[in-house]
Amino acid sequence: MFVITADQVASRREGDRAGALIEELAERYADELVLPADQTAGDEIQLVTRSAPTALAIVLDATRFGRWSVGVGVGDIRMPLPDAARKATGSAFIAAREAVGAAKRADGRFALRAAGSAELASRAADVEALVRLVVLLRERRTDHGWEVVELMRAGHQQKEAAAVLDVSAAAVSARLKAAMWRAEEDARPALERLLAELEAESERTAPE
């Protein structure tokens, strides 16, 4: 399982954004969550999923504006499941707690931890480094870059995006290149596969 824990940055200055993020993520990913998105303590939220693509997508959404430190824990969850994430326990939650603490000190405010052997922890560190590169790439994207990237992710062709934005097709192409859209899109399937392999190995080696 993947447990994603996000802790708001500078909440005392900016107010509590937890409710808004829970609503946003629940709307996008509710069908892929094992338990409903939950506000666990103060300005911290927690989500649980079996899906590597969903875990990666949540990380990228939550880190987009630099307002959250995001930790992902990979491991098991004690069964039967309770009715809320804040009531659940297991090695994935312990790993997520360690990860979000590390994320507060990390570039990109992201960290990944896997419960289990030293070898598994080493593999998690490798995956963490690659995910962080994508997070940092996205941090450099301008508002104009995000406009065109969001249109492309919604399924538009470049000519259609140009018409929506009232710019030339060449301008859309230039914005996509500057936004490093293709680099991110090419990286996502590989990262999803690596996360899925990490989770499968964690399940395989979990104590009975």
Automatic annotation (TrEMBL):
The organism sits in which domain of life?
Bacteria
One GO term of the biological process aspect:
regulation of DNA-templated transcription
Gene Ontology MF term list: DNA binding
Fetch the SUPFAM superfamilies from UniProt.
C-terminal effector domain of the bipartite response regulators (SSF46894)
Name listed for the protein in its UniProt record: SatD family protein
Biological classification of the source:
Bacteria, Bacillati, Actinomycetota, Actinomycetes, Micrococcales
